[in-house]
Specification:
This protein is α/β, with parallel strands linked by helices. The chain folds into 2 domains: 174 residues, Glycogen Phosphorylase B (Rossmann fold); 68 residues, 3-Layer(aba) Sandwich (Rossmann fold), CATH 3.40.50. It has 10 helices and 11 strands. Helix 1 links the parallel strand 1 and strand 2. The radius of gyration is 21 Å and the shape is globular. It starts with a strand and ends in a 6-residue tail after the last helix. One of its GO terms (molecular function) is glycosyltransferase activity. Keywords: Transferase.
Length: 263
């Protein structure tokens, strides 16, 4: 057991459902089970429930509901005075993004000589490039921002070797460690194919090709209809997609154009 305190800083957290929010919750759970004291700092959300050791900072919600709440700029004065409880006794700050929140915390950590870890979850230039028309102008800026931010931290964590190579190519000098994103395996068990047949009329003797996740462009879901098109003449498979998101309407249209709607 230990009484060491870790602060996790993230731009997305419950009630938002995405990979980072789930990852942060799993990190907090595992660290607490190991005996650490864990606090979480994240933007305020209208529908968020109060949670012990979760500190919500001022944020704005843009008109687009698919864009998460964004933290407002935080001064060191605001951090030090308004969030004393969140920062009291913290010995390590784990940053999950590049944002106003994490930049403020990085500066705070430097001033108080606290170690920092940065987990690189998302290819920023690819993710924002799909959202913004001016991607070709933003890419160099985002690459520089990623490199500069990572090089100010003490350790960088990435989920795969390919991401590590990418950051190295950008010029990241900070030590990079590959830590695959964990899953709670106890939640997964042998499924009941009979349920699929009863609810979705999918015969149990068919091959089931499945996708489970957010239906968003950054997940490259637009490749799924094209990849399945060569199988249209075969009758021994069905596609099961579980999830929702901004790319759903476009996907449904794509499936219709390829005559795959009933598959």
């Amino acid at each position: 057991m230990t009484d060491r305190t870790i602060l996790l800083a993230t731009e997305t957290y419950a009630p938002t459902i995405n990979g980072v929010a789930i990852s942060v919750r799993q990190q907090a759970k595992a660290l607490r089970e190991a005996g650490y004291l864990v606090r979480i700092m994240t933007p305020r959300q209208a529908k968020a429930k109060e949670e012990l050791a979760v500190y919500r900072v001022p944020s704005i919600q843009l008109p687009n509901p698919h864009i998460y709440p964004l933290t407002l700029p935080l001064s060191q004065f605001t951090l030090t005075n308004d969030y004393k409880t969140a920062l009291k006794g913290v010995e390590l700050i784990h940053l999950q993004h590049i944002s106003f929140l994490t930049v403020a915390l990085l500066i705070y950590a430097k001033r108080h000589r606290l170690p920092t870890i940065y987990t690189y979850h998302t290819f920023l230039e690819h993710y924002l490039g799909r959202l913004l028309v001016i991607n070709f102008l933003l890419r160099p800026v985002l690459r520089w921002l990623t490199k500069s931010f990572a090089n100010q931290t003490d350790q960088v964590i990435v989920p795969t070797k390919s991401v590590k190579r990418y950051l190295k190519e950008l010029g990241v000098k900070t030590k990079i460690t590959v830590v695959p994103t964990g899953i709670e395996v106890q939640k997964y068990r042998r499924g009941r194919r009979s349920w699929l047949e009863g609810k979705h009329h999918i015969p149990t003797d068919k091959l089931i090709i499945s996708y489970i996740g957010r239906l968003a462009q950054e997940k490259n879901v637009d490749l799924i209809p094209t990849a399945l098109a060569p199988l249209i003449e075969r009758e021994d498979w069905h596609l099961l997609m579980v999830g929702d998101g901004p790319a759903r309407a476009n996907l449904e249209h794509h499936f219709a154009v390829l005559n795959l709607t009933d598959r």
